[in-house]
Design brief:
The protein has 9 helices and 5 strands. It is of the alpha/beta class and 193 residues long. A 5-stranded parallel beta sheet has the order 2-3-1-4-5, with helices on both faces. The longest helix has 15 residues, at 118-132. Bound molecules: adenosine monophosphate (AMP). Adenosine monophosphate (AMP) is lined by residues 10, 32-33, 36, 53-54, 58-60, 65, 86-89, 93, 136, 146.
């Protein structure tokens, strides 16, 4: 199995481009944000706990997302691999993912990082708010908190995966989705894993 990580700040296009990679490479796309939103919509206990944290722009506890991911690793096997979108987001999650994969005799294949400047995060999320109506897209204060959380808790993963030679970056700041998608697909070809 291959294990790819879609990495980058909120609004970088991780979910959008994950769909193209999923279809081209026969991967299972696992978005922890989407899985959490489904729990909220279903009104589960986990969803209720997650909702307060998500609506403030804070991360949910590591073990909450790790359990959701592990459950899918154990139940899905009719694909070439997994495309993790929005996970891991902390060093603790990255270390636990390594352990989870080591126990399966596997390891992370590559990290595909989509880079955009902070101002573009605000622009893109304001645009998405009008279309998707996500609770955490509605206010500038919450968006800024998500950006701060990304810099403080998620950005250290760049060094973590660079040291392992698994970190690959693409500028995802082109004005059109098509242009950015072409860059992401080009990077995948280059990685050739
Ligand atoms: P996303 O759809 O990836 O932007 O995620 C939406 C929200 O879900 C995030 O702002 C977090 O509150 C929560 N979330 C998603 N993935 C994780 C994760 N790996 N660790 C902690 N919280 C997460």
């Amino acid at each position: 199995m291959k294990y790819y990580i879609m990495f980058g700040p909120p609004g970088a296009g991780k979910g959008t481009h994950a769909v193209a990679l999923r279809d081209k490479y026969n991967l299972c796309h696992l978005s922890t944000g989407e899985l959490l939103r489904a729990e909220i919509a279903a009104g589960t206990g986990l969803g209720m706990k997650a909702k307060a944290l998500i609506s403030e722009g804070n991360l949910v506890p590591d073990e909450m997302v790790e359990k959701m991911i592990e459950k899918r690793f154990n139940s899905i096997d009719d694909v070439e691999g997994f495309l993790l979108d929005g996970f891991p987001r902390t060093l603790g999650q990255a270390e636990d993912l390594d352990k989870m994969l080591a126990a399966r005799g596997d390891s992370v294949t590559a990290v595909i990082s989509l880079m955009i400047p902070d101002e573009m995060v605000h622009q893109r999320i304001r645009h998405r708010a009008a279309i998707e109506g996500r609770i955490d897209d509605a206010s500038d204060v919450v968006i800024q908190n998500r950006i701060n959380t990304y810099h403080a808790q998620t950005e250290p993963l760049i060094e973590y995966y660079s040291k392992q030679g698994k970190y690959f970056e693409v500028e995802a700041d082109a004005p059109t989705i098509e242009e950015n998608r072409a860059r992401v697909l080009g990077l995948m070809e280059k990685i050739g894993k």
